[in-house]
Amino acid sequence: xxxxxxRRTIWPQIVLLGGWGPVLLCFFWPVYFITAxxxxxxxxWKWKAPGSLVHGRRRVTMIFGLLGALLQIGGxxxxxxxxxxx
Length: 86
Hints:
This protein is 64% helix and 0% strand. By secondary structure, the protein is mainly alpha-helical. The protein is elongated, with a radius of gyration of 16 Å. The model has no long low-confidence stretch (mean pLDDT 87).
């Protein structure tokens, strides 16, 4: 008899929060060193994980989260580029 699933972690929402949460909620840039690589790693690791029981896979949400993480990395690169030019 298969096991009944009562709840399931929705990984795309966690990736979305990790990608855009630090950008929208706090502009404390050292946080980006942790959240950006963790978000990208989580998105790659959980790309084929089963989706929500109600809404399905939600790959678009995961892509938007990845874009937020890439924006964080781009912001860090721009910051260090402009600081090093001084």
